[in-house]
Design goal:
With 550 residues, this protein is mainly β. Strands 1, 10, 11, 13, 15, 16 and 18 form a seven-stranded mixed beta sheet that branches. Strands 21, 22, 24, 26, 27, 28 and 30 form a seven-stranded mixed beta sheet that branches. The protein has a five-stranded mixed beta sheet with strand order 12-20-19-14-17, with no helix packed on it.
Length: 550
Amino acid sequence: MKVYRQAASVVLLLGALTSAARVVVDWNVGYVNLDRDGHSPRRAIGVNGALPIPPVFATRGDTLVINVHNSLDVTTSIHAHGLFQNGTSFMDGPAMVTQCGIPPGHSFTYEYEADHAGTFWIHGHDHHQNSDGLRTPLVVHERREPHRYDEEYLLSLEDWYPFEFAARLKDTLDPTKTFPPPASFPYALFNGHPTTPTLKFKPGKTYRFRILNMSTTEWFQFNLPGHQMRVIEADGEYSQPSAVDGLDMGPGERYSVLVTAHPTDSHNYHYNATLYAGFVPRIEDKNPRHYQGLIEYREGAPIMPTTEPANFKWVSDVELCSLSGNPPLPVDRQIELTVGGSLFTTGQTMDIINNITYAQPLIPSLYSAMSLDTPLAMNEAAYGPQTHAIILKHLEYIELLVNSPNSLPHPMHLHGHAFQIIEYGSLVNKSEPVRRFSSEVNAPMQRDTIVIPINSYVKIRFRADNPGVWLFHCHMDIHFGMGMALTFIEAPDVLRQRQKVPEAMLELCRAQGINTQGNGAGNTGLDLAGLPLPPIRVNRNGPLVPPVDF
């Protein structure tokens, strides 16, 4: 299988000596039939007739050019997860949020600056095509890395289900079927393959591991027994080095760690990766699934037996300290959100944020923000009742208090921003200590995806300094598909002065008969005729029900 390994000296030399380049990739997005996990042949979505999709590598300041042709029978779109798209919000990718999907048989070119270094990924953001294979790592190297190392490894982790996502979502939302559907148990993929790669170490060398959880639903744990990892990055944001024994990663999360090899090559070692979901039944060899790989110092060397340390330390993002040294942001406005699930009068159980289940509007929300007169563009009602629009004023400091009174965790991802991690706390056990950022260092860690533990809350902060339309959603695709999402409409009055949607993007809408101006229904004023009426919760004052547990 493919192992993605680069010498740091080459990366640093190229970054220091070369000017910004154009990194061009050509993607013909289409169906492929294959057996990715060795257990379940099925139809998937690949690029240029193959899976996995090769990673994309760039250097900060380069221009990324992704030429996409759609050979599917439905629309598609592409999102660079973790890039902020500052000044190019129309290139963010979520269908009916910042663009119309690319119609079948049509082509479109995404072009924007990779102005942020770190570990990211590119994935489909229409019809949840990420879940069916349309995903690959994106690495943007810094021109002068703040941390020193000799070589780097890229390791993408994925869950892979035996059936297409559309079938899972259809069963979940079918009111005539049992809810939740029977649990399903995916297999793990490593750099797109079912076998773990061999990691070759040289004595005394320091390696950077870029590790991504590109899963649809499940978590990964990763550790290298006999070696200590030092976290230096989370979701494209640098941290002060922090020693840990293992990583526990929800869907969408990424880390970089430094690992220094032992001084001799007398022994090889094993490393461990575990695919698991704490919210489905625990069944031997199904959940969790344990995988082991080889750290090879010398071919044929004996394996060094290791034991887990008594005080094993998993990474805790709130305990990390930002390398930037920036203090906690002030707060101009706190927005309180509660995520969960609810039974509706349609007979369906859907996911909600503040009692609203997300549904796409009839025109992209960005186009509403840019075409409506300023008073209307600043009116949340103009975007439609299920778009769940929240207006942010330009440059205001926002604190999100996100409550999750649920029996399973939620990895929440914010487009367009990284946020400071301020606090975690329990919603049910008031005696449980609150976990806050270090007051001694006073530099809260930033990231773009955060896991809210069961029956807990988080506080995160960011500044509304990136005019655009940005999703905030659960990155478990089944929960996103069930409606756990909202839309931040950030500074629409400033947005329309600074940005203009390219004509080629508007043509994607026109080819499908979709308006490019007006409110969420494509009409004038607050006339939302054409949008479906929002579903009604069976008991709006009752407790939330757990979201689907698979």
